[in-house]
Amino acid sequence: MTLAECIAAVRDGDDARYDAAERELARGGASVAEAVLAAIASVTSKAAARRLADVVWVMTDPGVVPVLVRALRDDSLSEGVRSKLLDVVSRLGGDGVFELLKARLEAEPGRWRSVARHLGRLGDARGVALLRRLVRENPATDGDSAEAVAEVIVALARLGDFDEVRIVEGLTRHGSVAVRLAAVRALSHAVGPDTLATLSSLRGEPSSEVRLQALRALFLLGLPECVEPIAALTRDPDAALASIAMARLEELTGSSDVALARAWAARVAGDARCRRRGEPIDYGRLAEESLAEGERDVSEELEIRTGATFGSALPPLLPMDPDEQERLARAWRDRELPRFEVGGHYRHGFAVRVTP
User: Fold this and answer.
1) Considering the entire predicted model, what is its pTM?
2) Quick check: 104 and 80 in contact, CB under 8 A?
3) Residue at which a domain ends, from 66, 95, 124
4) Residue 25 sits in which domain range?
5) Is residue 18 included in any domain, yes or no?
6) In the chain, how many domains are there?
7) Contact indicator for 62, 79 with CB cutoff of 8 Å
8) pLDDT at 315 over 90
9) What is the pLDDT of residues 278-304, one digit of tens each?
């Protein structure tokens, strides 16, 4: 199909050609992005504009960033399309993206939650000061603001700043389930010396969703002391959660037998290295596992621990070309892997302290 035919197939929702057209466009560079944006500007159907914006959303060529930055300066863009384009430029990064986000925050301070999320994804250290300001200016006084503050603290963690983790640790005791869920989810990303104690104190948490997020955060901590709270969750009244807890116990200790897992924890007690399958975590091995087809959980784990985004489930919607994926993985291993110590504790590529 030609470029025009691909755009038409996506715009019109042509079932017979849609998938092939979407894949072709998503692999395009700056000229393709310009053509898709022109098509978005010309359509009157919101559904058609959304379909075309979805194509831009999964583009991976950094060359599209200048095109999208220019487009984002156009006030006539719908908020839905604008959000998709912001997702792309914050994921890919490049000149002018930080300035664009800063200007959006100044022009529309009510959108600080969205801007914070994009600043975290962008990975520009200049975002730390802006995010800290948002925490100061938007205290967690109610459910909505508390959820938003938790998101800001995740964004800070993505930039290597963990100083505000106590705020989300405190929010795990909030009266709102939604706030507790956001706070506990944040503790997979933002950690500190008191995080283990905070997560261990959630055994009586009434929400199974919150307990599930606590399980994930405990597994990511990777400490022998995580065995007991995880073992308790293997007896959870929610059968699905109990099953997941059993799998996590095995991923942490190398055994799904609670007695053997406890024996393992006793044997390595006092050794604060991060563990996976009973051994100090090897980040090269984790990266290899993330390449296996369908390993979304491992891909997400790799990103949380190291910041790497070449796993099998990324980018969203479209599977990455295997050759491109392997190229990115090889480049990451050559450039980044040497700085990750076996058994070290990291979040988004930054070393963290997880014990008092």
Assistant:
1) 0.91
2) no
3) 95
4) 1-95
5) yes
6) 2
7) no
8) no
9) 999 999 999 988 887 666 788 889 999
